[in-house]
Amino acid sequence: MSDLLLANARMVGRDGTPTDVLIEDGLVSAIAPAIAPGDREVVDLGGRFVAPGLWDNHVHMEQWALVRQRLDVSAASSAAETVALVKARIREDRPADRDLLVGYGFRDALWSDAPTAETLDAAGAFPVALVSADLHAVWLNRAGLALVGQPDHATGLLREQAAFDASGIITAIDSSRMDEWVGEAAAAAAARGVVGVVDLEMTLSIDAWAERVGAGTRALRVRPGVYPADLDAVIARRLRTGDVIPGTEGLVTMGPAKIITDGSLNTRTAYCHDPYPVGGGVGIPSFSVDELTGLMGRAHEHGLDLAVHAIGDRANTVALDAFAAVGCRGSIEHAQLLRPADVARFAALGIVASVQPEHAMDDRDIAEVYWAGRTGRAFVLDSLVAAGVPLRLGSDAPVAPLDPWVAMAAAVTRARDGREPWHPEQRLTPAVALASSTDGRESVVAGSLADLVVLDADPLAGDPEALRTMPVAATLLGGRFTHRAL
Ligand SMILES: [Zn+2]
Predict the structure, then answer these.
(1) Where are the domains of the chain?
(2) CA–centroid distance, residue 186 to ligand 1 (Å)
(3) From the CA of 184, how far away is ligand 1's center (Å)?
């Protein structure tokens, strides 16, 4: 590993005096003014700001890689507007080696013009398939119809089963293409300052990650999780949380066992203590308490930490009961609605709250309906911090973009799109939001891993809304540049 001297750095959270940062063997070995460069490479940061590298504690990397390749047409309010978006995309970035442009998000119910293969053909001869926002329709041009085995379809707009069949064909990609797209997504994450992710992809991805690293995807540290369906396979391989996956240069380590215990707010399946005011019911638990405790106990026995998905307040109560009964370590993923007593129990049990602040911005309106009268207990980030609960921010990409600055901005402002803040009493300070995005590393000190992000602005000062688009000048992983724009 080549050594490196970062000159004229300002350390985030310190007094702002420029200093030098010496990196040796993947570690920060010294932070001091005027370090003699010797024969090391010197990079003058010109007073830019240095912080620990960022982590996203909850992503679905393959799903995110797929979505990144797709064209978002949700803003279009007619077939003609949709065609214009497709045309612009084909013009600006015609992917020579790709055989199909996939778009998503159209809503044709109120359009005055009809989505047909012929109108879509106006965008060009390149095969195009657009999936509707509700996933129940697929709109294709003639070249796209040929690709899904429907060359003579009358209109080009497939609905229901025909749409599901077409979706299956257009989303099936081979693993080498997937690895290429995951590599691009990893590089894009590094360009936002990310050095690591917890990958909670539903299919076991440890071997895929080993292959990706072997093929040159080295932009991120990855902790792949395991779901119950693959738990036995991981146990049989004697992999414990934290173990390095062989052949990954130490970049990929076994992540947690992931267990989903309830549904979601939008589908009213998040498991709650109180009935939903609309539609009734209290949501749907995925397991009985005994089943959950048994599953968590088995993972714990074999050295795996737990990552337990719980959104409704009752799902969180049950998950905390199970953590207490099993005595294991881990996180609750989402923790969107909480009783105050359970906030205290998170702290007492030492359970990490792994939260996605941008979901609060996406779901604030629906929460006011489905959790009417309870939103003071929703996304209680500051209450968790005040109680001493270890907090980790994430995106749940592709639900929100894999960009920790988006999560931090949402946590600090509780606002987006010029709206008034939503429950501003639960805002985090920028310092807490940043410290919750660095895998527990509060600051860069001598002896730290040289996983660093170099920023053009001080994230702790200035307009918090500017966090959303924070300019990232460079990212280093173990002292190696994974992104460099300076
Ligand atoms: Zn998820």
Answers:
(1) 1-53+443-486, 66-170, 175-236, 256-440
(2) 17
(3) 20
Q: How far is the CA of 399 from the centre of ligand 1 (A)?
A: 8
pLDDT reported for residue 85: 95
Residue 235 alpha carbon to ligand 1 centre in Å:
22
- What's the CA-to-centroid distance between 15 and ligand 1, angstroms? 38
Q: How far is the CA of 59 from the centre of ligand 1 (A)?
A: 6
Give the list of residues 6+ apart from residue 305 with CB closer than 8 angstroms, or none. 241, 255, 256, 257, 328, 329, 330, 331
For residue 444, what pLDDT is reported?
Answer: 96
pLDDT digits (tens, 9 = 90+) for 80-91: 999 999 999 888
| Entry pTM | 0.91
Cα of 260 vs centre of ligand 1, distance in Å, is: 9
Which CATH code of 3.40.50.2300, 3.10.20.310, 3.10.310.70, 3.40.50.720 fits the domain covering 66-170? 3.10.310.70
Distance CA 427, CA 41 (A): 41
Residues of the chain with pLDDT under 70: 1, 93-98
Which residue reads 């077409």 in tokens? 166
Q: Which helix (H) or strand (E) holds 342?
A: helix 340-349
Fold (topology level) of 1-53+443-486: Urease, subunit C; domain 1 (2.30.40)
Predicted local distance difference test score (pLDDT) of residue 173:
85
CA of 382 to the centre of ligand 1 (A): 22
Q: Looking up tokens 């609605």, which residue turns up?
A: 337
Domain 256-440 belongs in CATH node 3.65.10.10 = no
For position 320, what pLDDT does the model report? 98
- CA 460–ligand 1 middle distance (angstroms): 29
